[in-house]
Each structure stands twice: as structure tokens, then as C-alpha cells.
Write a structure and sequence with these properties.
Type Iii Antifreeze Protein Isoform Hplc 12, single chain, globular, alpha/beta
């Protein structure tokens, strides 16, 4: 986003930096704190909220900031005026602060992220998600709630879904039709778990459950569902095609059936081992033979598919760009465009016994696979974002998809009410409510 640097410099010169609140103090949040404090004039980090305030204090101090405890919105505002960064464990304090314009969710937790989103909209705050799992579970519904409140909802620049969406927008702008949007992965093994990934996680200072969600394919399914829902695409099949290909990403142009892609209306996918990695790609076609002549001249080949790619994704480095895009341009980086197109369903990672209470994503019990939303709803398959904490009613075999009929859902969960509301809004009936075993599910 070329104009963002100029606009932020203007806000800084005017003494009106954008007020940002951050929720979370983990690996990605620590990088973002450092980025805002040391490399992003025009944005003021007003407050950091974390359930363990000491971690937020440490992250701010490491980045050269001055943390101070606050227990109210008024306290946050006073500290911001004095140039300090407030630390709190109360999301209500951040979402009620007059100095906070945008909240960034860097938690990765679905249940908490749902509460935070609703609190942001009630408090009049724009929302940027470094929490793709929330968006994959009920993003289409949350967009409608943000719109109703006159607020903006967006995924984050630098994360693969927004990098893909930026490239999709570029391709459309120059007159091509995107047919495939994909992720370049280095590893895909659905049976990885926090024990197998512990060494990698320790080396980089990351959470081993989050690292597992990347290795076992859950994260790529989550991320590609976001792209599908934002771009109006679908999947070829459950889990996507997911080829192993160790050549250049440009070579993928000959590996898709163009007629099938046209019939699908475009598809999301991923490839393992391709170069340049770890990046993203968009394959697009042009229906004008005159322009195809120019594309061949410019070394993009003869079509019908042309390759565009970004060879990196810089995660927290680019999140401030999204903050600026929302406040200064009213332009979300990525958000669902309407009814959900692709969901992420819950697949057994190993043989599971009746009575098992499922752990969280990136754990020992399940992995996620992208599936068409119509199929998810029709077959009443359990969305990945609702799986944590449910109890199995029967034995489930390794690699079997888990459905609502297979589980008992704890009563009173906000996530189930939101999902039921989304299903009813876009499909006419909540999938879970149709299942007699879920009599304890709260009415949405």
C-alpha cells in the first residue's frame, strides 16, 4: 500500500497518531509491539491486554517502551496522554478507551476472540485479526456485525491470506481473472503433534501447539478458507489438491484443468516444496488475445494461466499497514465477501475413543481440512473452531471426519450461538440445531 507511509507521516507530523490497542503478548504480538514502537511513526501503541500482564510488561520493555498498569479505560487514556503504554487484563478497558481506534487480536484463541470481536463492535473499535481461526469459524457473521456498527473488520497484511488477497486485487486491477490462489508450504504431515514439534518451537520461541497447527495442515486450511470467503472461490475437494512440487511455482500453470477452474469459479489450494518459498501464488487468465500477446512478450508465458507470486510473507512487519488502511483509507486487507464458501472441518489425527474431550487445534486429537461450506452444513460436520472441549459420543477412527452427531457440546458457549446464528443467516437453519443429540446447545 504505497500511500500508507505518506499518510502515517502526516498523522505523526500533525500530532495525531492512530491509537492502537493490542490483545495478546505471545510470539507474534511481541514482534508487532517492537514494529510499532520502533518502525512505525504515525501509530501509537496505547495499550496491551493479556491474561498474564507480566508478559505484556516484558514485551513492551524489551521493545524500549514504558509499560504501566491500568485497570480502566480512563486509566489507559491518562497513560497514553503521558506517553506510556497501558497494560491490562481487561478487554473492556481497551475497547472502551477513547484513545484506542483499532484493536489487533493476536491471541489465536477462538472462544476468546469471539468475545473480543463483540466487545470491539460494542465499544466502537475497528478490528484487525491476527487470529485466522476466528475468521474461519464465523467471519462472515462478524463482518455483518461490524458493518451494522459502522466499523471495519479485517485480516492482517503480512499474513498469507491478506498477501494472497492483495495479489488477487492486483491481478483483477490489471484485467485478469484469478482462477487459483494458493500457499507455498515446506511441510505437510497431518500426524504431527506438540511433542514432535517441541524442538522447532523452542528454537524459535514459539508455542508448540501453534507450530503444530502449521505442520499438520490445519493452518493452511484455515488460511485458504479465508481467501476463498473473501474472493468467492471454493475447493476442488476436501483438503484441497495439495500437490508435492519441488520446481518453481510458475510450473503450476500447467497442472490445473482450466475448464474445471472456470466451472468452480476459482479455487484455493496449496503446494508443498515449490520455490520460491515460503510464499503465495495466484494463477489467472486473460480473455483478451491482444493482452495475451503482451503477457507473452513480458515473459509470463502463453497461457491460459499466468503465474503471479509473492515470495515472502512478513507477518507482524505489515500489520501496521492494515491498521493504517482501516483508519486512513477505510480499506480492509481481507474480509469475507458474503455467505461462507469454505469451512474447516475436524479430522481425527489418531484413533479416538468415546468419551475423549477434544483438545485445542494443533494438538494430539485432530487436524483441520478445508471443505465446501454447503457440504459442511448439509452433512452437519463439526467446524474446527468449535471442536475444543467437546466430548466424543462414539469411537472415531484415524482420518475420519467428525460430525455434530458424534459429539456432545458443552452448554452455554458463545461460539456455538454465533455459529448457529451464522448458519441461520446464510443457510436458513443452524446445522447443529438439527441434531437431536445437541439439546443442550443454547438457542442462537
Amino acid at each position: 500500500m504505497i500511500p500508507v507511509d505518506t499518510l502515517l507521516a502526516q498523522r505523526q507530523a500533525e500530532g495525531r497518531p492512530i491509537g492502537m490497542g493490542l490483545v495478546g503478548a505471545g510470539f507474534m504480538a511481541r514482534g508487532l509491539i517492537n514494529q510499532v514502537l520502533n518502525s512505525t511513526p504515525g501509530i501509537q501503541l496505547v495499550a496491551v491486554c493479556n491474561r498474564t500482564p507480566s508478559k505484556a510488561h516484558a514485551a513492551i520493555t524489551e521493545a524500549g517502551g514504558t509499560p504501566a498498569a491500568a485497570d480502566s479505560a480512563a486509566g489507559i487514556d491518562r497513560l497514553a496522554a503521558a506517553g506510556s503504554i497501558a497494560v491490562t487484563d481487561d478487554i473492556g478497558a481497551i475497547t472502551s478507551s477513547d484513545r484506542v481506534e483499532v484493536v489487533v487480536d493476536a491471541t489465536g484463541a477462538v472462544a476468546f476472540g469471539a468475545e473480543l470481536a463483540l466487545a470491539c463492535f460494542a465499544g466502537g473499535k475497528h478490528l484487525v485479526l491476527l487470529n485466522a481461526e476466528v475468521d474461519a469459524t464465523f467471519g462472515p457473521l462478524l463482518v455483518t456485525k461490524a458493518d451494522a456498527a459502522g466499523l471495519l473488520y479485517s485480516g492482517a497484511d503480512g499474513d498469507q491470506p491478506a498477501v494472497q488477497m492483495n495479489l488477487i486485487r492486483f491481478v483483477r486491477q490489471i484485467g485478469l481473472t484469478p482462477r487459483v490462489a494458493g500457499n507455498i508450504k515446506g511441510l505437510q504431515d497431518p500426524y504431527r503433534n506438540p511433542t514432535t514439534q517441541e524442538g522447532f518451537a523452542k528454537r524459535w520461541g514459539q508455542d508448540r501447539w501453534m507450530v503444530t497447527s502449521f505442520a499438520d495442515g490445519t493452518k493452511v486450511s484455515v488460511e485458504e478458507s479465508l481467501v476463498a470467503n473473501a474472493a468467492g472461490m471454493t475447493v476442488h475437494k476436501r483438503g484441497m489438491l495439495g500437490r508435492d512440487h519441488h520446481g518453481h511455482v510458475d510450473e503450476l500453470t500447467g497442472m490445473y484443468d482450466i475448464d474445471e477452474l472456470r466451472e468452480l469459479g476459482g479455487a484455493v489450494d496449496y503446494v508443498v516444496g515449490a520455490q520460491p518459498g515460503p510464499g503465495i501464488y495466484v494463477l489467472a487468465e486473460h480473455d483478451d488475445p491482444k493482452q495475451r500477446h503482451y503477457l507473452e512478450l513480458y515473459k509470463l508465458g502463453t497461457g491460459p494461466l499466468y503465474s503471479f507470486y509473492t515470495p515472502y510473507h512478513l507477518c507482524h512487519f505489515e500489520v501496521p499497514t492494515t491498521v493504517a488502511r482501516l483508519v486512513l483509507l477505510g480499506d480492509p486487507a481481507i474480509r469475507p465477501m458474503g455467505a461462507p464458501q469454505v469451512d474447516v472441518v475436524t479430522m481425527a489425527k489418531t484413533d479416538l475413543s468415546a468419551g475423549t474431550v477434544l483438545d485445542r487445534p494443533g494438538g494430539y486429537h485432530y487436524y483441520g481440512e478445508a471443505e465446501r461450506s454447503a457440504t459442511t452444513h448439509r452433512d452437519r460436520l463439526l467446524p474446527l473452531g468449535l471442536a475444543e472441549g467437546v466430548r466424543l459420543r462414539r469411537d472415531v477412527a484415524k482420518d475420519e471426519v467428525i460430525a455434530y452427531a458424534d459429539v456432545e457440546i458443552p452448554p452455554g458457549r458463545l461460539v456455538d450461538r454465533l455459529r448457529a446464528e451464522q448458519d441461520e443467516r446464510f443457510f436458513g437453519s443452524p446445522a447443529a440445531r438439527e441434531e437431536p443429540a445437541l439439546t443442550g446447545l443454547p438457542k442462537g
